[in-house]
């Protein structure tokens, strides 16, 4: 059970600048370090080509995008750089922008024709890379602004949610679940995101997935027959395994199949109360209204008795409606008849709000799909 994530090859002279001034030797190092003046010199005076890769097969536009130098990316594109150029791994500049969450560079790329759905040799798109590196803001940005598919699988069947769970990025998981990413999707190994979170011992990721999921997901088995709980125990994750085990035990319904094929327990105490009301009504009729050993009741008493029975029947009807129907929610007084459900601030969350962009992803509730504001 293994899958490889995107690799951005770095060298000491390009992607890891030290405290000393790094040597700017060509358009690639100039793009990587954001030296605009040197870059212009290489291109306009020395005639360096911006459309050719370096010795490793990487493009100057990729280095600029990786480090979010959007002005340099724009300059390179203006001078002939291909926004969809691919390296040896079929990765584009947008893939590299996703590694470090370079949203400004991504805007320049997409606005100049970069394909948001471009995939590399592993089937990774920008959304997968963003999930692999926990870049929730970048992921949300390309989903909102460019309608990127946030639930698409890669060549191994891993969705971005699989990657976020595997790497333990809880905020990215919250965002994806908030956007209704499929939590029960199984990859080629039969694993759900919860399997991978349990396998890696990512406690917070497991907590978010369990609370937002269903009890059936705790019971899903992979191709080897293992549930998330078994994987956590096999890997010796002492914090995750007991938590998942307790959740699995709590979700089991021992009465299912024993009483009305589980219908009674799905409703809760409703059948008991229902039977109690019927029993008391029958008892009232036999012992009071139509009891042969009692004196004949007067018309007033009889009217009262049948009124009580009618109320009991009415209560049964209302009890059924209350226990089986969706209660809905109460609109604010000023909104009655003037505002549709989709315009309600709790139902239409704006993920472009400044508080979300500040990184407060923990305020997203993936279970009830609301944005929690704390005072």
3D structure, described in words:
This protein has 375 residues and is mainly alpha-helical. It has three domains: 13-149, Serine Threonine Protein Phosphatase 5, Tetratricopeptide repeat (Alpha Horseshoe), CATH 1.25.40; 163-252, Serine Threonine Protein Phosphatase 5, Tetratricopeptide repeat (Alpha Horseshoe); 262-324. Helix content is 47%, strand content 1%. It is built from 18 helices and two strands. The longest helix is centred in the last third of the chain and has 26 residues, at 299-324. Keywords: ANK repeat, Golgi apparatus, Lipoprotein, Membrane, Palmitate, Repeat, Transferase, Transmembrane, Transmembrane helix.
CATH topology of the largest domain: Serine Threonine Protein Phosphatase 5, Tetratricopeptide repeat
How many domains? The number is 3
What is the H/E string?
A: HHHHHHHHHHHHHHHHHHEE
Number of helices: 18
Task: Give the CATH level 1 class of the largest domain.
Answer: Mainly Alpha
Strand content: under 5%
* Second-tier CATH architecture of the largest domain: Alpha Horseshoe
Distance between the termini: 44 Å
- The portion of residues assigned to helices is 40-55%
Return Rg in Å. Answer: 31 Å
CATH superfamily of the largest domain: Ankyrin repeat-containing domain
Mean pLDDT, to the nearest integer, reads 81
